[in-house]
Amino acid sequence: MRKKVNRISAARFAVFALLVIYVAVLAFRNGKSSVSFQTVEAAVTEAADFQNLQLGTGQDLKKFYGLNEKDFDAVCFYYASQSMGVDELLLVASDESEKIEEAEDAAEQRIETQLRNFEGYGEEQTKLLQDAVLIKKGNFFLLAVSPQGDEIKEKFLRTV
C-alpha cells in the first residue's frame, strides 16, 4: 500500500515538474509578440527626442542600411537631420526571423561605419554610437542611437 502511495506522489511530482518546465518555456521563448507594431512604435517614439531627427523613407532605409522596406511587415525609421548628427531610430517587425537577423546585421554594420567616420574627431558622436541600443525580441528589432537610448530600450522591453 505504501509503495502505491509513493508511486502516485512521484507521478504527481513528475506531472507538476513537466507543467512548470512547459510554462517556463512558453514564458521565455523568443517567439512572435502579440503586441501590435503601432503599440511598440508609440512606446519607443514616446521616449525619443525628435528635435534633431527626420522621418526616413524607404529610399533612406536602403541608402543607410541596404534594407528593402517591403521585406518587413512594418518599419519605423528616423535619422539625424544634421550632417554631423548620428542619432537614429530604427524599428522593424517581421514574422521571418531571417529578416530580423538581416536588420540586426545591417544595423551593426551601420554603427561600425559611423564609428569609422567619426574616429578621431567626433567625441560626442562616437560616445552615442558606442552606447547604441541594438535589441532583437520576438518579431521586432530596435536600433536606437540617442542620448535617450536607455529610456527607449526600457520602453521597448516593457512593451514587447
Helix content: 40-55%
Percent of sequence in beta strands: 15-25%
Give the strand line-up of the largest sheet. Answer: 1-2-3-5-4
Write down how many β-strands occur, each being a DSSP E stretch of 2 or more residues: 5
- Structural class estimated from helices and strands: alpha+beta
Number of DSSP helical runs? 6
Query: Unreliable stretches, pLDDT < 50, 5 or more residues?
Result: 23-30
Average pLDDT metric = 88
Order of SSEs, N→C? HHEHEEHHEEH
Report how far the terminal alpha carbons are from each other: 52 Å
* Backbone CA Rg: 22 Å
Specify the overall morphology: elongated
Largest sheet: 5 strands, antiparallel
Brief description of this entry?
The protein is of the alpha+beta class and about 160 residues long.
Key attributes of the depicted protein:
single chain; 160 residues; alpha+beta; 5 strands
Report on this model:
Strand 2 and strand 3 form a beta hairpin. Helix 2 packs antiparallel against helix 6 (149-159). This protein has helices at residues 2-28, 37-47, 58-65, 97-117, 123-130, 149-159; strands spanning 53-55, 74-80, 88-93, 133-137, 140-145. Strands 1-2-3-5-4 form a 5-stranded antiparallel sheet, sandwiched between helices. The protein is an alpha+beta fold and 160 residues long. The chain has 6 helices and 5 strands; from the N terminus they run H-H-E-H-E-E-H-H-E-E-H. The longest helix has 27 residues, at 2-28. The protein is 54% helix and 17% strand. The protein is elongated and about 80 Å long. The model is unreliable at 23-30 (pLDDT under 50).
